[in-house]
Amino acid sequence: MHSTWYKTTAFYAFVIFIFVESVFPFYYAIVTSFKSGAALFEITYLPTSFSLDNYYQVLFGGNGTFLQNLWNSLWVSTITVVVALFLAITAAYSLSRIRFRGRGLLLMTILAVSMFPQVAVLAGLFQVIQSLGIYNTDWSLIFSYTIFTLPFTVWVLTTFMRDLPVELEEAAIVDGASPWVIITKIFMPLMWPALVTTGLLAFIAAWNEYLFALTFTASNNAARTVPVGIALLSGSTDHEIPWGLIMAASVIVTVPLVVLVLIFQRKIVAGLTAGGVKG
User: Fold this and answer.
1) Which top CATH class is 54-273?
2) Which of 21, 83, 145, 270 is found 20 to 30 A from 15 (Cα to Cα)?
3) DSSP-derived secondary structure for 63-129
4) Has this prediction a pTM greater than 0.85?
């Protein structure tokens, strides 16, 4: 009895520690975003003032640059998810349902591509983007983000599709269904948890990416995304770093991701745990 009580207490204490460790930086950013002037340098863990000046300056100051950055991030991330999921689900069908020589090696190669750090391929990718004529455009970001999100999406969707009953596909083939009909009418309705999980993680990766966004839109303010816009806020003044503006911008950028995760949390858990337990 004593041992059970001790383990329960230790478990909940560990959970509370992880929760505080994860949430506190975002909470402190919210508290700081409402401060201004000398209050920014006072360490307080509870709100002592409430001012929306930082949010107003971020959203409507600087000729609406930050709003343009928000739109660019939303556009680039959405198109990246759509293209990546379209390519991934067709590749997953081939890798999970069609037998051909080298299928396992190809799947391992796709996974190995995701292990390369971004900086290792930055120079080569820069040359490719320049040769395609999409440098300093949002299409350069869509192109590069799709490349780096495809390995993960292909791997997850392939694993999920392997667990779907073969009888469904065989019955559809007997009825004369084409591979495209099998994918869109039979597999996709059953794969919503995996699609939501991979799509959301790809969206978050594209939304938060900084290195490619800074490199491939270096001289085009109209094509810059939110991470670059926040980084440039630190150079918007000649004296001190505008921590209030940076925190307000960080909160604005983070809130949509938190809302998306909360909305689709059940789908995310189902997608990540799919195939983990077989009856």
Assistant:
1) mainly alpha
2) 270
3) GGHHHHHHHHHHHHHHHHHHHHHHHHHHHHHHHHH---TTHHHHHHHHHHHTTS-HHHHHHHHHHHH
4) no
